[in-house]
Amino acid sequence: MLFFSAKCPACNQKGQKVENDTMIHHVKDISKMGDGGYSYCSNPQCNVVYFRDKEVFTTDMINKEIGFKNSSSDQGAVCFCYNYTKSVLYDDALVDKINIRIDNYGSRCDLRSPSGKCCIKEIKKMQKEKKEEELHDIFKEK
Predict the structure, then answer these.
(1) DSSP 3-state assignment of 25?
(2) Helix H or strand E segment including 58
(3) pTM (2 decimals)?
(4) Is the dihedral of CA 22, 28, 29, 33 positive or negative?
(5) Distance CA 5, CA 89 (A)
(6) 116 in the Ramachandran plot: left (φ > 0), alpha (ψ -120 to 50) or beta?
(7) Which helix (H) or strand (E) holds 55?
(8) Are 78 and 115 in contact (CB under 8 A)?
């Protein structure tokens, strides 16, 4: 039996399998969806969100702006369960705030997050990249 990961037709990045139930919560026109086998493209530079072979759903075909895509504004969502936006992404306490809410109220990342996975890992990655960028800029000025 062969196992392979689908690659995004726009950027060629390896996609992450995503359930149809997740897509139903995000795609504007679900009548354009097939019966499964889609992947999520997490590449921030790519405009594709979901794909299957050559079939794609781009950021403009999604209900809510995805803050993890570079094309998003400060109002793009980074936590879909609790509606935190890119505008608060670099608040050092953001991950703690999300974790407190998850502990108290739970989460439905499997449906609410476009990737079908918890956003915290991606938030931490973006925060780390921002701090590294700031350090680079500080040392570059000297």
Answers:
(1) coil
(2) strand 55-58
(3) 0.86
(4) negative
(5) 30
(6) left
(7) strand 55-58
(8) no
